[in-house]
Specification:
By secondary structure, this protein is an alpha/beta fold. It is built from eight helices and seven strands. The protein has a single domain, classed as Spore Coat Polysaccharide Biosynthesis Protein SpsA, Chain A (Alpha-Beta Complex), CATH 3.90.550.10. Strands 3-2-1-4-6-5-7 form a seven-stranded mixed sheet, with helices on both faces. Strand 1, helix 1 and strand 2 form a beta-alpha-beta unit. The longest helix has 34 residues.
Length: 246
C-alpha cells in the first residue's frame, strides 16, 4: 500500500478504481480523477493481482491523495468492496481502470447531491470512446449520450447508501453494477439525473462485456436475484400482516 491517510481529516470524496493488468489505460484513468479531486480527497487503486506494470505506473504518478491497495485476485466486485470498506469520504465514486472522467464531472454531480440532501445517488450521461480494437462499435453508438443509472461509473454515491445495501455482490462477474442499482432502488434510495457528461466509457478488445453469451447469462442471474428478493419481501410482508392481526 502506498500513501498514508490522515485519520483526522475526513475527505469529501473517495474514488475507487479496481484494476487487474490494466497498464494500457490505468494512467489516463488516474489522471482524469486526480485533476478533479480536492486536496483532502482520496483515490484508492485496488490492484487485484496484476502481473504487468499496473502497480508501477500507478505508484510513479506520486500523488499523496492516491493509495494503492493490494486485493487478492478475487474479482472486480470483491476489489470494489475492499475499497468501500477503506473509503473515508462522504461521497463515493467508482471508475473502471479503462474509463475516464470528463472534465467538470465531479463538481456537477457533487453539487446535485448537496442541493438534494435526501438523494443518495447522482448520475449523468455516458460518452463512448471506441478504440481501434473495439469489437462492438454498434453497441457503443447506442450507448453514447445516454443516461444509464445502472452504469456506476457515471454515478456519484453517498458512501452510507452503498454500505447500507451491502456493497457489490461478489458472486457476480458481470452485471454487478445493475444488481447494486436494483438493491439501492429497492431500499428507497433517491437518484438524481444530471444533465452533464459523467463518464467516458472506453470500448476495446478486452472489455469483459464483449462476451455476449456471458452478458446474457449474467443478466438472467441479476433478474433472478431481483425476483427472489421481491418474493422474500412479499412473504415477510404477509407474515407481518398476519402477526399484526392476531
Amino acid at each position: 500500500m502506498t500513501g498514508t491517510p490522515d485519520a483526522g481529516n475526513r475527505p469529501e470524496l473517495t474514488v475507487v478504481i479496481p484494476v487487474r493488468d490494466g497498464e494500457r489505460f490505468i494512467e489516463q484513468a488516474i489522471r482524469s480523477v486526480l485533476a478533479q479531486l480536492g486536496g483532502g480527497d482520496e483515490l484508492l487503486i485496488l490492484d487485484d493481482g496484476s502481473t504487468d506494470g499496473t502497480a508501477a505506473l500507478a505508484a510513479a504518478i506520486g500523488d499523496a491523495r492516491t493509495r494503492i491497495i493490494a486485493s487478492q485476485a478475487k474479482g472486480v466486485s470483491a476489489a470494489r468492496n475492499l475499497g468501500l470498506a477503506a473509503a473515508r469520504g462522504e461521497y463515493l465514486a467508482f471508475l473502471d481502470h479503462d474509463d475516464v472522467w470528463p472534465p467538470g464531472r465531479h463538481q456537477k454531480l457533487a453539487q446535485a447531491l448537496r442541493d438534494n440532501p435526501a438523494a443518495g445517488v447522482a448520475y449523468g450521461r455516458i460518452r463512448v470512446r471506441a478504440e481501434a480494437d473495439a469489437t462492438q462499435p454498434g453497441r457503443g453508438a447506442r450507448l453514447d449520450g445516454q443516461h444509464l443509472p445502472t452504469q456506476i461509473g457515471a454515478s456519484l454515491f453517498r458512501t452510507a447508501a452503498v454500505r447500507a445495501v451491502g456493497g457489490f455482490c461478489e458472486e457476480l462477474r458481470i452485471g454487478e453494477d445493475i444488481d447494486l442499482h436494483h438493491r439501492l432502488t429497492e431500499a428507497g434510495v433517491i437518484a438524481i439525473r444530471c444533465e452533464c457528461e459523467a463518464l467516458i466509457y472506453r470500448m476495446h478488445g478486452s472489455n469483459v462485456t464483449n462476451d455476449d453469451a456471458a452478458v446474457r447469462q449474467a443478466l438472467i442471474e441479476v433478474a433472478r436475484r431481483r425476483l427472489s428478493r421481491a418474493q422474500r419481501a412479499r412473504v415477510q410482508s404477509h407474515v407481518e400482516a398476519q402477526s399484526g392481526s392476531e
